[in-house]
Write a structure and sequence with these properties.
The structure is a single chain. It contains 16 helices and 14 strands. The chain has 443 residues and is α/β, with parallel strands linked by helices. It has two domains: 199 residues, 3-Layer(aba) Sandwich (Rossmann fold); 226 residues, Rossmann fold (3-Layer(aba) Sandwich). The protein has an eight-stranded mixed sheet, sandwiched between helices. Helix 8 links the parallel strand 7 and strand 8. Helix 11 packs antiparallel against helix 12.
Length: 443
């Protein structure tokens, strides 16, 4: 199929590159000419494992980029809207979605052939029916269903693993306003393995599936952290071992399979969740529920617990010093998770702020996210290091926020330092016996 994708952020660009890998002809559209030029040189504007390889393989063949939205729509059969939907504290901002929608509709006014417009952006339930569809009809002068189709196809990409998640999905949700819309959308995913579960549904249900999925993951994280905080208060309880006991339940594993399912990775104690999805989506769903006079007390608690975790992480240092004033602390990991440069809502930043407010002398290091972190947290009092060695030089304590594989040997690297360095494992990613002064969430 010939596909156009509006927006070249994480979702749009990964989607475009992966659909090209599956044999589709893909045109990516962005308003930024510099970004478009870079993409046409096969240069990835974001760090995502495997993405640059796909760009080098397909740019100039099945993948191209342009600023000309109208031309892209006119020369394709299906358009995916993959622009950002930031949350402003009260509601998601649909400015980019509706701006793209109106331009798509204007292009459809010039097109005789049937065209499917699909919302890929994460939007609250009702957005596609109540906002996107009417805007398309007004700007095109045509009728949805008769002249063009409308669909909703949520993404389930985990940053750092997005390429693999797209190429090898665990599910495909096909939302549409009618049978024809979902049929065309199903054709888009025809090259994917037949055994991947496909769910056909309406657009509102498809929108809710995305929010339900992310809200569940966030709830699992905060549930575990609440237990971890209680375990710490009671004493002599290791929440990591508690959750290992929970993971052994048949609810989480099969007698016929080795290892544990991926869902258990969200049932681990830590310094809190971040990223561009979980915090935004949970907050947006809470707000959307309030507008519908439906209280979202469970999710409100999930957010509150998560907001408290960075402070609890820094509090582990206070077990060793009555005051953190002048204490030299290295914070390792600035992206919200490994294998991505995305620092949005990273717990590293409230941890940095908490340390600075306490008078600590702070340095920080991340293998790929240094420059993104400096833009998001341009605090002159933080010494952003260029290497792990520099970060571990002349310190009293270290906090691992993001367990990059590059940090695997940190316990060994600080073992010989005198006086002993306090090691705070913000993700419970290390053996608690690996270093003398070990501190971990939920221990």
């Amino acid at each position: 199929m010939k596909i156009s994708i509006i927006g070249t952020g994480y979702v749009g660009l990964v989607t475009g590159a992966c659909l090209a890998e599956k044999g589709h002809q893909v045109t990516c559209v962005d308003i930024n000419p510099d970004r478009v030029a870079a993409l046409n040189r096969a240069e990835a504007p974001i760090y995502e494992a495997g993405l640059e390889d796909l760009l080098r393989k397909h740019v100039g063949k099945g993948l191209s980029a342009t600023t000309d939205l109208a031309s892209a729509v006119l020369n394709t059969e299906l358009t995916l809207i993959a622009v950002g939907t930031p949350f402003n504290g009260k509601e998601i901002d649909l400015t980019a979605v509706l701006g793209a929608t109106k331009q798509i509709g204007a292009a459809l006014r010039q097109k005789a052939a049937y065209h499917l417009v699909v919302v890929k952006s994460t939007v609250v339930p009702g957005t596609t029916d109540q906002h996107v569809l009417p805007a398309l009809e007004v700007s095109s002068g045509k009728k949805a269903g008769a002249d063009f189709g409308v669909g909703m196809n949520p993404e389930f990409l985990s940053e750092g693993e997005a390429v693999n998640d797209f190429l090898f999905p665990d599910r495909i949700v096909l939302g549409g306003i009618d049978q024809r819309s979902t049929d065309v959308l199903a054709e888009l995913y025809q090259p994917f393995p037949a055994d991947v579960p496909r769910l056909r549904t309406n657009t509102r249900t498809a929108e809710m599936i995305k929010y339900a999925s992310n809200s569940l993951l966030a709830t699992l994280i905060s549930f575990t952290n609440e237990l971890a905080n209680l375990g710490s208060a009671l004493g002599d309880i290791d929440t990591t071992e508690v959750m290992r006991g929970v993971h052994l339940s048949m609810y989480f594993r099969s007698r016929n399979k080795e290892g544990l399912p991926p869902i258990t990775s969200f049932l681990k104690a830590g310094c809190g969740f971040g990223g561009s999805c979980l915090p935004k989506d949970v907050s947006a769903l809470i707000s959307h529920g309030h507008k519908a006079a439906s209280s979202m007390r469970l999710l409100e608690s999930v957010v509150r617990i998560n907001e408290e975790q960075p402070k609890r992480t820094v509090a582990l240092l206070r077990k060793h010093w009555a005051s953190l004033k002048g204490i030299r602390v290295a914070v390792l990991g600035l992206s919200f998770k490994p294998e991505t440069s995305d620092v949005r809502e990273s717990p590293a930043f409230p941890i940095l702020r908490e340390l600075l407010d306490a008078g600590a002398v702070v340095k920080a290091f991340d293998p790929v996210a240094k420059h993104e972190a400096q833009k998001a947290f341009p605090e002159p009092k933080v010494n952003y290091c260029d290497s792990l060695d520099a970060a571990l030089t002349d310190i009293d304590a270290v906090i691992v926020v993001t367990p990059w594989k590059e940090f695997h040997d940190v316990p060994a690297l600080i073992a010989a330092k005198q006086p002993k360095v306090v090691f705070v494992d913000g993700r419970r990613a290390y053996d608690k016996q690996s270093v003398a002064n070990y501190e971990g969430i939920g221990l």
